[in-house]
Structures are given as C-alpha cells and as structure tokens.
Design a protein that fits this description.
The protein has 249 residues and is mainly α. Helix content is 70%, strand content 3%. It has helices at 5-12, 16-24, 43-57, 62-70, 76-109, 116-119, 129-139, 141-152, 155-174, 183-197, 204-216, 218-224, 231-247, and strands spanning 3-4, 32-33, 39-41. It is flat and about 70 Å long. InterPro entries: DNA-bd_dom_put_sf, MerR-type_HTH_dom, MerR_fam, TipA-like_antibiotic-bd, TipAS_dom.
Length: 249
C-alpha cells in the first residue's frame, strides 16, 4: 500500500512542505512516483519517517539523522529500543517537574508552604544516560567505522577478534590489584588501544571517554566485571593514564 504526500502529512500530523524538504535533502525519498508525478510513500518509508521524527524530538539535527539512517550499520530495532529508553527517562523527569510545579501553585495560593529546596525537587538537569549513549553510538564516526569493518569480517575472523578481546580483559583482570599507572597496566592499556584502533579510529580523548563510560554505565560495568570484580574501574583508570601520557608524545 502506498500513500500520497498529503495523505502522509495528514496521517502523521506534519506539513506537506516538511515532507518535500526531507525529499529535497535526501533524508526521506519516497520509493515510488506516480505517472502524474505524485510522491508515493511505502510502508517502509513510513517506518523511516517515524524514526526521523523521534530523532528530531530528541534533538538530533537533520544532517546527523541522515547520516544515521543511511549508514549500512544502522539497526532500526536497536534504534527504537534505545529511543524508547531515552523517552521513558525524559517522561520520568517531566513527571517530577510537573509535580513540583503543582506544589508551587498550591504554595502561591497559600495552601501549602514550600522550602527553597522543595521548590527545585524534580529539576534534574544532569545528562540523560541513554541519550548520551545514543549520541556516542550514532555521533562518533569511530563506532560506525568499527561496525562497518566488523560487518565485512568472516565469522572466523570475528570469533578471533572476540577471543583476543577476552584475552586482554583476562590479562587486565589478573593485574587489576596493581597501580593503573604501572608498567604492566600501561602495557595492557596500550594493547587495548591498539585492538580498538584495528576496527575503528579512536583518538586518545575518545579512548579516555570510553573508559569513563565503563564505570558511568552500570551495564558496561556489569559485563566487564564478569572477568573480575573491579575490572571496569581499573580499566577506566589505566586508560585515562595512558591517554594523558601519550597526548604529549
């Protein structure tokens, strides 16, 4: 089933001009055009449009959205799962802020008294964990490059890569009681940096940021610490030392 541009605009609640603009910039080009020149949108086009509008709601610029959805490594289901997490966290923040606003209205009416601290309960302006993950996932060219390289590998090569990664983790787990700025730790940090750059292009700053994510995101911590309790924190420290030391070289 196909829909004309006006039908899509009415269905979605956006303007025809917006759809024309998406087509003009190559963000969303309809699969078909009728003999009379009408744009005809397929079900797959509508699926892509849904993703575009969610990304827009999350603050992604159109240029970046185009790069994301056009990437060979783009996984629509993965994107939806992460988008859902971001939206749920945003909803939770808004619910708390609404509750504070309702209390403030009561306060102004003289029905209740609020302390200054209570007036700002629910006003959390720290970063959204999943939103940061999304921006790192789709905003860092190194990650996209890595996925593309891995996708071209044979299954055997991919398995060897995973075995090497696990070997590095195991090695670092065995020395995690040592100082992260020591020779053993820094040799392992170098080995990990080389491994990452064989499938991507990680700057020293990005490498340091990746280590920070190992402790900031509890999912990373849980997976890494399977090799040894406290390994994620040790990795973060060793990677930071490695990045800082090599910036001056």
């Amino acid at each position: 089933m196909t829909l004309r541009v006006k039908e899509v605009a009415d269905l979605v609640g956006i303007s025809v001009r917006t759809l024309h603009h998406y087509d003009e910039i190559g963000l969303l080009t309809p699969d078909q055009t009728s003999e009379s020149g009408y744009r005809l949108y397929s079900d797959e086009n509508l699926d892509t449009l849904q993703q575009i509008l969610i990304f827009r709601e999350l603050g992604f610029p159109l240029k970046k959205i185009k790069e994301i959805v056009a990437s060979p490594s783009f996984d629509r289901q993965e994107a939806l799962i992460l988008q859902r997490k971001i939206l749920i966290e945003k909803r939770s923040k808004f619910d708390k802020m609404i509750a504070s606003v309702d209390k403030m209205i009561q306060h102004l009416k003289g029905e209740i008294h609020m302390t200054n601290k209570e007036k700002f309960e629910g006003f959390d302006f720290s970063s959204n964990l999943y939103e940061q993950e999304a921006r790192e996932r789709w905003g860092d060219q190194a990650v996209d490059d890595s996925n593309e390289i891995i996708g071209k590998m044979s299954t055997d090569d991919q398995n060897k890569r995973m075995e090497k990664m696990e070997a590095i983790y195991t090695k670092m787990a065995a020395i995690r009681h040592l100082p992260p700025d020591g020779v053993e730790a820094q040799d392992a940090a170098h080995e990990w940096y080389v491994w990452l750059n064989q499938i991507g292009s990680y700057s020293l700053e990005a490498y340091k940021g990746l280590g920070q994510m190992y402790v900031d995101d509890k999912r990373f911590t849980k997976n890494i610490d399977q090799f040894g309790e406290g390994l994620a924190a040790f990795l973060k420290a060793a990677m930071a030392v490695y990045a800082d030391r090599n910036k001056t070289k």
